[in-house]
Every structure is written in structure tokens, then in C-alpha cells.
Write a structure and sequence with these properties.
Blueprint: E1 2-6, H1 12-22, E2 30-36, H2 42-49, E3 53-56, H3 62-70, E4 75-78, H4 87-90, E5 95-99, H5 114-123, E6 127-134, E7 144-151, H6 158-182, E8 186-188, E9 191-193
Parallel strand pairs: 1-2, 1-4, 2-3, 4-5
Antiparallel strand pairs: 5-6, 6-7, 8-9
Length: 194
């Protein structure tokens, strides 16, 4: 199964996918391209280190480049990509997103990074977590593949909560890719059954 990974930042989730491929946890899977909208994204350096093709996009060429490259792969993985995809790119593609909360809570436009963790803490929630879901035209509203919880402790800051959530993000991202690669799942409403 061929992947394209979109990332805007450090690329730690990209690294988790690379490590899972190299250790044969993810078999028969390759990353064909890493695409970023941020020329400073460390994800691009990570990709180059492993000989993975990298592509930098801008607002003006995003649609064209993404459309062309999405057609060349089996799965698109949004791993810390900070742009909302144009709806016409979503219709015909298998795209998954990693979100740092237990969707449908704390999702939607503008909810990313520390904003999510700050909102969780301010709400008084006792648990948070991460979600991997299929991407639909409605932001963070696609069928949920996998979620995992972490406790929200009284002393947590947005940064400390982010660190806890990040530890489970990588695990559920790899498991979700495995589920999709095996193909033994079905979508029922807002859930993925496997």
C-alpha cells in the first residue's frame, strides 16, 4: 500500500510511520511522498534522511499538487497538517487524519495543537486522548477508526497534556494504517467496524 503523508511541523508522527515500516510492523507499505505547506517543517528533513520524495506546496498550487499526488497512492495520512483540504480532493480519496482529542469533542475548524489541549483543560474534562478518523468535507467529523484515552490531571498544562496525548497518537495511527491495509473493516455511520 502506497502512502502520502502531509505534515506541517516536526514530523514525529511521520517518524513513527517510518520506524514502523523499517521494523516491519507495517508490512507491504511505503511512503511515496511527504508533502508540507511549511518550508521550515522538520518533517521534510526527516523524509529526506530516509530518501522519501518531498514536496513543498503553497496556497496557490496546493489543489493542483495534492490532486495529482493523491491519485498516485492508496492512502493519504494527515499527520499534523495545518491546512483544511479542499472538498473536491476528499471525495474520491482515502484520507485519514490524526486529531489530538476524543472526537467529536474539541474538534472542528481552528481546533489544533495547544488550542485543543487548552480547551480540554478549561472545560474541566477528566480525560482526553487522540482520534484517527477518515476525512470528510466536514472538519473532524468523519468516521472514527480508533481512539485512545489519557487522564487529565489537575496539574496538567496544555503542554503536558499535549505530551501525554502525543504518546498515544503514534500507537493508534500505526494501528489504523494496519486496519486499512488489511481491508477487513466497514464503515457504519460515524464508526469504523473491524
Amino acid at each position: 500500500m502506497k502512502l502520502v503523508v502531509l505534515a506541517s511541523g516536526e514530523g514525529t508522527n511521520l517518524q513513527a510511520i517510518i520506524d514502523a515500516i523499517n521494523s516491519k510492523i507495517l508490512e507491504n507499505i511505503s511512503i511515496e511522498y511527504v508533502i508540507s505547506d511549511n518550508p521550515e517543517a522538520y518533517a521534510l528533513k526527516r523524509a529526506k534522511k530516509y530518501g522519501i520524495n518531498t514536496i513543498l506546496i503553497s496556497k496557490s498550487n496546493m489543489r493542483e499538487i495534492l490532486y495529482r499526488h493523491f491519485k498516485l497512492v492508496d492512502l493519504v495520512v494527515l499527520a499534523g497538517f495545518m491546512k483544511i483540504l479542499p472538498p473536491e480532493l476528499i471525495e474520491d480519496n482515502k484520507i485519514i487524519n490524526l486529531h489530538p482529542s476524543l472526537l467529536p469533542l474539541f474538534g472542528g475548524k481552528g481546533m489544533f495543537g495547544l488550542r485543543v489541549h487548552r480547551a480540554v483543560i478549561e472545560s474541566g474534562m477528566k480525560v482526553s486522548g487522540a482520534t484517527v478518523h477518515f476525512v470528510t468535507a466536514d472538519v473532524d467529523a468523519g468516521p472514527i477508526i480508533m481512539q485512545e484515552c489519557v487522564p487529565v490531571d489537575p496539574y496538567d498544562t496544555p503542554e503536558s497534556l499535549q505530551e501525554k496525548v502525543h504518546k498515544v497518537e503514534q500507537r493508534i495511527l500505526i494501528k489504523s494504517i494496519q486496519i486499512i491495509e488489511r481491508g477487513n473493516y466497514k464503515i457504519e455511520g460515524k464508526k469504523v467496524i473491524y
